[in-house]
Amino acid sequence: MNDLRNNVLLAMSGGVDSSVAAKLLLDQGYAVTGVFMCLGSAGRGGEAVRGCCSPTDAADARRVADALGIDLFVLNFEDVFAPIIDDFLGQYARGRTPNPCIHCNSQIKFGRLLERADQLGVAFVATGHHARVVHEGQRAAIARGRAGGKDQSYALFAVARSALPRMLLPIGELADKASVRAMARDLGLSIHDKPDSQEVCFVPDDDFAALLRKRLPEAMRPGDIVDATGKVLGQHDGYGQFTIGQRRGLRVAALAPRYVTAIDPATATVTLGPREALLGTRLTASGANWHREVPAEFTAVVQIRYNHRGAPARVRLTGPETFEVEFDQSVSAITPGQAAVVYEGDILLGGGWID
What we know:
Layout: E1 7-11, H1 16-27, E2 31-38, H2 55-68, E3 71-76, H3 78-93, H4 100-120, E4 124-126, E5 131-136, E6 139-144, E7 167-168, H5 177-186, H6 208-215, E8 223-226, E9 232-236, E10 259-264, E11 269-273, E12 279-290, E13 297-303, E14 311-319, E15 322-332, E16 339-344, E17 347-354
Parallel strand pairs: 1-2, 1-4, 2-3, 4-7, 8-11
Antiparallel strand pairs: 5-6, 8-9, 10-11, 12-15, 12-17, 13-14, 13-16, 14-15, 16-17
């Protein structure tokens, strides 16, 4: 690699976070090159990947790059993104609830893009994530972003440990999203009031069921909706559209709220129960990725989904890529397919996929 110690490739989506990240990096003295990543089409039937490769987002990224005086290149990563979509669909077919953003971060943004940085002799790769990179001596670690309600470190657990020293996450140092938008507005960037994406980028209109029917119809087999005793409460038109903890859209009359407590893809049966039935104290996880060496057993805070605040627990390693968690108190809706991410204070230690 050439000695280009202040050069950085910045993933630019056309959104406010990555746009302000470019300005922050420039102010810190980095030589910034923007990269707009084109990820193909959602259903391989022509739908644009909204939020990843739409003409509007590409144009926004180009306008921001021009305003800041930096180069912007387009890279096609469809070959890596297509398997992420396939896995997403396959997880629903197994009765699990996937998180494709975690795979995108580890395999593309801090995977394939980092490989391209190597080819170009560029030292760093940056994104607009609300998380921080902190350095403890010679060791780098990911930490929660300072904008607590916007923290995105959870979605970075699967990034390879070797990538951490080369990550730059400037947005994570800002106190809140209002500060990000204020900076964009002060810079005269037209995207300062662009809404945050709240949906999976490759699911048109956020309609998971339609995508499953088109791409993996076996995941939309109809079946019974039952209670814990097996009593049939009604029927559904596709088990793949449900997730553990779901309350809305069940279309079953009940005197008290009911939640999805289990999904059996073998029989296409969806089980409902009261909120208390969602409570649990243990989970097992596989596909573990640790950002530092951890002992065989230790206490930590474990976060079980993006909008979970995390809960105190004891973590015990059960194999090279497996671990189990026992929470101090019951937590709600431990969901297979989601990630269990382990923290020491604000520092992300690693995590794995809930089985």
